[in-house]
Specification:
Bound molecules: heme C
Strand content: under 5%
Helix content: 40-55%
Shape: elongated
Structural class: mainly alpha
Distance between the termini: 44 Å
Number of strands: 0
CATH topology of the domain at 32-111: Cytochrome Bc1 Complex, Chain D, domain 2
Largest sheet: none
Length: 120
């Protein structure tokens, strides 16, 4: 890698960090960084309306979902055919067949790797 590409890389990394920091600030937590691409998907597909990283909202937090130990395919399927029986105390999530499978797989890859900071 030549030096100008390296510089470019560094700039991109820095931009990523700033975006990451900004999203942490707006979302109100600093423990887990949400990658920019994931942040965009969660925003675009309105998942954030009901799911936050570490906060119980209308739906369970991503951390709580991660702690259930779903497989990737189960995660994807659960967005198409949610089963509220698995989440006592929550309203049922509406099925979201419009979200592309490849986007859900990316979201799943990230969510399922979140380590619980504190169980909520
Ligand atoms: C209008 C609110 C709302 C939106 C928008 C929403 N969810 Fe949910 N979600 C819920 C609720 C409530 C639950 C718990 C009850 C249930 O599973 O039906 C849930 C549960 C889940 C679960 C747990 C499934 C399981 O089997 O344990 C996953 C995974 C999930 N949501 C992913 C997503 C993703 C990805 C998006 C965006 C594409 C999204 N949700 C958008 C409300 C929402």
């Amino acid at each position: 890698m030549n030096s100008s590409r390296l510089l470019m890389r560094l700039r991109l990394t820095r931009a990523g960090l700033i975006v990451g920091l900004m999203s942490c600030m707006t979302l109100g937590f600093g423990q887990t960084e949400i990658p920019k691409a994931i942040n965009e998907l969660l925003t675009k597909h309105t998942c954030y309306t009901c799911h936050k990283l570490d906060l119980k909202l209308i739906g369970p937090s991503w951390t709580a979902i991660s702690a259930k130990g779903l497989k990737k395919a189960e995660f994807v399927q659960s967005v198409y055919t949610p089963d509220a029986n698995k989440w006592p105390g929550y309203p049922p999530m509406m099925p979201m067949p419009q979200v592309p499978k490849k986007d859900l797989e990316k979201i799943a890859d990230w969510v399922l790797k979140i380590k619980p900071v504190a169980s909520k």
